[in-house]
Write a structure and sequence with these properties.
This protein has 380 residues and is α+β, with helices and mostly antiparallel strands. It contains 14 helices and 14 strands.
Length: 380
């Protein structure tokens, strides 16, 4: 078939306006498909990390938004004594928006001596010594830094809170790069003296042998009759519950992705049918000079595949470039879902484009290969 490729490419370029319109439409549809797919992947990465099963989040019972949860900081001391617990880290959470938003900024106030050991953060700029020295120092995630246009040494303000950027970090999980870490005492004082000794939640780290459900039940039993009752869940369950409404919307958005693939299929199929109709006499001539039915079938199918794949490459490239240049995150209740370009998103997009091209070309290719030679030569 390689000797027919010049003919196939010439046929595609022969109706360049129609081809360009089809490629553009396919690219737009695949762009939307990749964006939707990246959202779903972000949600999966957030809730399916193995470490989330060995980490518990202790929250105030019957509370949802971090602004409404308030636990004694010294709960951590009692939790550390329980069997199967490696450590308990008090965390003060502050967010500029507790509702669903595309621009959520989340601060986590953490004891400075716990931050490095509890998080796998890699500094892109700045240093830990500066963070520990500055009372208002902050370590800011790479995605937030790029989105807000700040870098090490800058002063960053939002919602009445101002910090000095001591460093910018990257993290294994994209959602972690949407966080800003500060000193625990700084966030406590920022909300008033009455908040000193109070935190939003405790993060409990477990041994590999510990049963997370058993330890969670022990923690809640321990504080059931205490000053503040707790609701303890694995980190994955806690995050999934926080973004449950968003998860439903993301699930619905998957139908939009399927519709985009269907649109690509219809665009390419329409273009291929029109191309076959325009070249009925050409196919008759090809059959006359000895080109077989299978070869005609393959040529039309390859033409459909090329048009669809070119549109797919453009759409996927545009989507990945947009996500790389403009980090986007969707958040609710101080839990963020990061949209990030990935190899799997690219492969899904290209596979969808190729499959659409193949399916779209099946019927037109069959029609071209089954056309009678005499009828084709008489066609005007």
């Amino acid at each position: 078939m390689h000797r027919f490729f010049p003919y196939i490419l010439k046929s595609i370029w022969g109706h360049r306006t129609r081809t360009l319109l089809t490629v553009t439409g396919s690219a737009v549809a695949l762009f939307v498909f990749c964006i939707v797919t990246s959202v779903g992947e972000g949600l999966d990465r957030l809730t399916e990390d193995t470490l989330t099963e060995r980490t518990l989040i202790m929250f105030q019972t019957n509370r949802f938004c971090p602004a409404t949860s308030s636990l004694p900081e010294d709960y951590a001391t009692q939790v550390r004594k329980l069997p199967g617990v490696v450590d308990a880290i008090p965390i003060k959470v502050y967010t500029n928006n507790c509702r669903a938003s595309l621009d959520v900024v989340v601060f986590h106030g953490v004891p400075a001596d716990k931050l490095q050991s509890a998080r796998s953060l890699k500094l892109a700029s700045g240093d830990w010594a500066t963070f520990e020295r500055l009372d208002d120092g902050a370590m800011i995630g790479r995605s937030v830094a790029r989105r807000r246009g700040v870098t090490t040494g800058d002063r960053f303000s939002i919602g009445g809170l101002t910090v000095t950027v001591a460093g910018v970090f990257s993290a294994p999980k994209p959602s972690e790069e949407d966080l800003i870490y500060t000193h625990l005492a700084f966030l406590q004082r920022m909300r008033g003296k009455q908040n000193v000794g109070r935190v939003t939640q405790h993060e409990v780290l477990l041994t590999e042998q510990a049963d997370s459900q058993t330890v969670a039940a022990q923690i809640d039993d321990l504080f059931r009759d205490g000053p503040v009752a707790t609701d303890t869940r694995t980190k994955g369950v806690f995050q999934a519950a926080s973004v449950s409404d968003l998860a439903e919307l993301i699930g619905f958005a998957h139908y939009l992705g399927v519709a985009c693939v269907g649109l690509v299929l219809m665009l390419v199929a329409t273009t291929t049918v029109m191309a076959v109709q325009d070249r009925i006499r050409e196919h008759g001539v090809l059959r006359t000079i000895g080109v077989s039915d299978r070869q005609v079938y393959a040529m039309v199918l390859i033409e459909s595949l090329i048009v669809s794949t070119v549109g797919g490459v453009l759409g996927v490239g545009l989507a990945l470039g947009t996500l790389a240049a403009n980090p986007i995150s969707l958040g609710a209740e101080a839990v963020t879902i990061a949209f990030e370009p990935s190899l799997s998103v690219a492969l899904y997009g290209l596979a969808a484009a190729a499959l659409s091209g193949l399916v779209a070309g099946l019927i037109p290719a069959w029609q071209a290969s089954r056309c009678e030679i005499v009828a084709a030569l008489r066609h005007v």
